[in-house]
Predict the structure of Glucose-methanol-choline oxidoreductase N-terminal domain-containing protein.
Amino acid sequence: ISYLLRNSIVTYSTEQSPAITYYFIFAPVFVQNYARWSSYANCLEPLLQHEDAQVTILPETLVEKVLFDPHKPGFVKGVVVAHKSASFPIWLSNASEANPIHPLPEVILSAGTFESPAILLRSGIGMDLKPQTTDYITVAHCLF
């Protein structure tokens, strides 16, 4: 952890107050060489360039919520999407299989600063006003 923190902290002092040092800690997941990177450039684009990639992209489609498997806590079995004026689930084809030939599918949630937490809340993660539909533990009320 100290290695990550040492390499992800930027310090600077101002001319008005050289005795004060300001610290900015960047999450190593979203920063590379002190520059923010996008999930498209670092996750999706390399995957699309792989010859064995099995990726489906649905333009003009919004994710409403993530569907978790009630029998396998923590496993995603699909997503509910809105396309044009219809709302429907999309099920992951091999969500219950686990072998080297058919690895478990992944859902990469990258909807931005405000929409990603909203999707998680609609999916039952982070709410404690109603029973949680997943096996995740709520650690805070605010996901921002």
